[in-house]
Amino acid sequence: MIQAANRLQTVEEYYFSKKLREVNFLITSGKPIINLGIGSPDLQPPQRVVEAIKEGLLAPNAHKYQSYQGLPELRDAIAGFYKEHFSVSLSPTTEILPLMGSKEGIMHISMAYLNEGDAVLIPNPGYPTYQSVTKLVGAKPVFYELDAANNWLPDFKALEELDLSKVKLMWVNYPHMPTGAKPNKYLFEELVAFAKRHDILIVNDNPYSFILNEAPKSILSVKGAKDVCLELNSLSKTFNMAGWRVGMVVGDNKHISNILKVKSNMDSGMFYGIQKGAIEALKCSNMWYVTLNSVYKQRRDLVWQLADALNCTYDKNATGLFVWAKLPDGIKAEAYIDSVLKDKHIFITPGTIFGSKGEGYIRFSLCATNEVLEEAIKRVK
Ligand SMILES: Cc1ncc(COP(=O)(O)O)c(C=O)c1O
């Protein structure tokens, strides 16, 4: 019997990979399932982006291997985007590495920096991939708890009290998924100071900056941040291009070149047409963001009504592609979402998949049309 590697015993198949099989089985057996689980944008990318990929298909070099560092024009467009939206200057030649979605960056960064036995600070609740990748590379997750009472921001006093001697890397993600918490005025400065004090590399995973958020911010806008911080960003949610797989890691050249060492040994450059489309997306005018958010605003109003009908509470100041809602006291998230799936045929994500601090919460995705959301409200009323 051929055994899988020991590291596979440290992780399970991704929650959505499993749960969506169950949901799809219900759909194929004729149940009228409304899926408010995953954050996969259903809206179209900008038209000029679609045109660019179509044109890209016909370019003479389109089918060849592409550069490991992406097209120079793509790195220029990323630098322009960071300057325009975050007032952060990046060198297109040395401080930007395009990725096939930001998710792969979590593995590349972990492979580039973590030795077996190193510790990694991970938010609870937080994106599950931080934890699973940490385990896959043989490092040890150390969770820092986020709490509604502190607006889901890190508690620096509690962080300082942890044993940080083995901590090499810290994942942060503001605007935060799943809670939608925004960074306050001081957060990124406090994080940079914390990283410098303890010699920790902080990575801010920043894919939700442009969704229902008035003030997009980058951790790299803090003076001196590049020494100790990296940022991941993504076109998945901002431009409805989740399936295209385009993201980036940005930061100081010493870090980017370490990550390139891993990535260039694992894959080859992104498809030419996708890069051409991404360039167009990154150049979109303000109108794109206004139009996108006007759709999400209407949807969020409807999701709030749905949450009201389910007797949940939520923070109207939260940002992002989801509504994070608190269940009435004493109700367990997984049992609750299973009962809503069974009785109302609505799939909602239980907060527990993001960690123990997600118990008692559920997460609704805004990736469903107004009509679908109105139908969901009707079903639960
Ligand atoms: C917090 C967070 N980081 C990263 C990702 C991955 O995004 P991408 O599509 O860029 O790989 C997601 C996707 O859901 C996410 O929620």
From TrEMBL:
User: Per its UniProt record, what Pfam families does this chain match?
Assistant: Aminotran_1_2
Recorded hits in PROSITE patterns, A to Z, give: AA_TRANSFER_CLASS_1
Q: Which cofactor does it need?
A: pyridoxal 5'-phosphate
Gene3D superfamilies per the UniProt record, alphabetical: Aspartate Aminotransferase, domain 1, Type I PLP-dependent aspartate aminotransferase-like (Major domain)
| Assigned EC number | 2.6.1.-
Keywords, comma-separated and alphabetical:
Aminotransferase, Transferase
GO molecular function terms listed in the Swiss-Prot or TrEMBL record: transaminase activity
The family database entries (InterPro entries) matched by this protein are listed as: Aminotransferase_I/II_large, LL-DAP_aminotransferase, NHTrfase_class1_PyrdxlP-BS, PyrdxlP-dep_Trfase, PyrdxlP-dep_Trfase_major, PyrdxlP-dep_Trfase_small
Question: Which residues are in the Aminotransferase class I/classII large domain?
Answer: 32-380
Q: What is the main EC category here?
A: transferase
Which family does the similarity line name? Answer: Belongs to the class-I pyridoxal-phosphate-dependent aminotransferase family.
Q: PANTHER family annotated for this entry? A: AMINO ACID AMINOTRANSFERASE, L-GLUTAMINE--4-(METHYLSULFANYL)-2-OXOBUTANOATE AMINOTRANSFERASE
Name this protein carries in UniProt:
Aminotransferase
What is the organism of origin for this protein? Flavivirga aquimarina
